Amino acid sequence: MKKYVITIVLLCFLSILFVARKDLYRIYLENFYFSKNSITLGEKNQFYRDENFEFVQQTSSFIPKTRKDILNIYYTIINAGKKTFHFYCPKSYKNCIDDVKEIANDQTLLSHINNFVHPFNGFKNIATEYDQYGEVTISIEYTYDQEKIKAISLEKNRIEQAIWTNNMNTQEKILKAHDYIIHHTHYDKERTQNDEIKYDSDTAYGALIEGYALCGGYTDAMALFLEDLGIKNNKISSENHVWNALELNHQWYHLDLTWDDPIMSDGSEVIEHHFFLITTRELKSIQDPEHDYQQDIYLEVS
């Protein structure tokens, strides 16, 4: 009888321990492991931008307390060129995993975050996993591989040496890059009209190497020149379009190479400047639905 009672007590204790193991392990993680082994970003790649924006900022804290903290963690990880990264949801942040799930499943939101990083750190695919203990793992596949980065960089440097001179000011250099890209790039209408994928036209490789681009290709190519000029910039995307935004002389402007490279009915090549360094007021006055964007995300130009 005594052995039977002891066995029951032991089984009850083990059952309680089994049920509570998740909370006990999280308490251990939060109060012991992470207090002694702080999560750090580690090494950043060469395309890291030391920039903060209204919507997302860099962070050094990888145990979030709010949804905004999670957004900043995603931005920081992508901006640093990380392929995988782990962070932790503390028990005190009761909705943390739910917020992670919501952000991870919102591809539009992740694409907006992607618009604030260097083009070569832009992701092609991003996946998020989480476990019952609050650990979150982000895995990233980047759009540009090393071979294409090398080819694009060599061509970009060649172009800059050909079109820029020391006596030009920054705006003149932006104009030269704008005109060069448009003059040497065709809009990839076969891809949009017939769904034929012959070129990497949604990237800077298509624009600068192959000579064919969609709006993403024009925008990435232009962003690379803006980076070399030391200009704070980001991409802006609406539902079906993307273009550049940049800060020049403490003023933010829009720059849309796609719309400055119209397809003429007679096949002739035309360079326009209707969307060259225009203010948000000027952009809105055009009343084009393709340029309707979320102003609560792109606050610098709103």
Question: Can you walk me through this structure?
Answer:
The protein folds into three domains: 1-37; 38-142, no CATH class; 146-301, C8orf32 fold, CATH 3.10.620. The N and C termini lie far apart (78 Å). 43% of the residues lie in helices and 14% in strands. It is globular. It is built from ten helices and eight strands. It has helices at 2-36, 67-79, 96-104, 107-114, 146-163, 170-183, 189-194, 204-210, 215-228, 280-286; strands at 84-88, 123-130, 135-142, 186-187, 212-213, 233-237, 242-248, 251-255. With 302 residues, it is of the alpha+beta class. The strands form three sheets. Strands 1-3-2 form a three-stranded antiparallel sheet, with helices on one face.
Protein traits:
C8orf32 fold, 3 domains, globular, 3-stranded antiparallel sheet, alpha+beta, 302 residues, 8 strands
User: In order across it, which strands form the biggest sheet?
Assistant: 1-3-2
**What's the CATH class label of the largest domain?**
Alpha Beta
Distance between the termini: 78 Å
Annotated CATH topology of the largest domain: C8orf32 fold
Task: Please bin the fraction of helical residues.
Answer: 40-55%
Poorly predicted regions are none
Q: Number of DSSP strands?
A: 8
Structural domains: how many:
3
CATH-level-2 architecture of the largest domain: Roll
Number of alpha- plus pi-helical segments: 10
Q: What is the residue-averaged pLDDT? A: 90
Major beta-sheet overview? 3 strands, antiparallel
Order of helices and strands: HHEHHEEHHEHHEHEEEH
Structural class: alpha+beta
Shape: globular
> What share of residues are in beta strands?
5-15%
Gyration radius from CA atoms, angstroms: 25 Å
